[in-house]
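Q: Predict the bound structure with zinc ion.
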Amino acid sequence: MIIYKTILTIIIMDISIMPDTYQPSIDGNGNYIDKIPIIDSKGILCSCASRKDKIYNSVNKFSQHIKCKKHKEWLDALNKNKANHYIELEKCKEIVKSQQQILTQYEIKMQQKDLTIQYLTNQLTKHEKNNIIDTDVDLLDLNSILD
Ligand SMILES: [Zn+2]
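A: Predicted complex:
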């Protein structure tokens, strides 16, 4: 359980230091439009093909970026394909649902393993205490007692 919590903490820490990914706004007609977001110290990534791994760490730099041809083409492509986004959203919802089911199954397995570890630890502790008290017991004698 402790290892599970540690891994979860590491994942959460990694997410908290990762830059946000830029999401365009939507105007009154349902079209994607550029709107400069608030950019904090983590910076921001843009999903357009021009420089996918580039982190923009200031409003000025990001303002310059959204003026480039590749970014404008990306925004145009988003608007042309927006009808497909609903279908993609539905697919993503299905994936999330199945991932949640898998996580729940893993959680149940983890709890079962945790209980098994607790049980075995208790058994081991009892066994060690018995060995300390009765050190003269031979394992061969134990077999005869158990029979
Ligand atoms: Zn871009």
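A: The first helix runs from residue 2 to 17.
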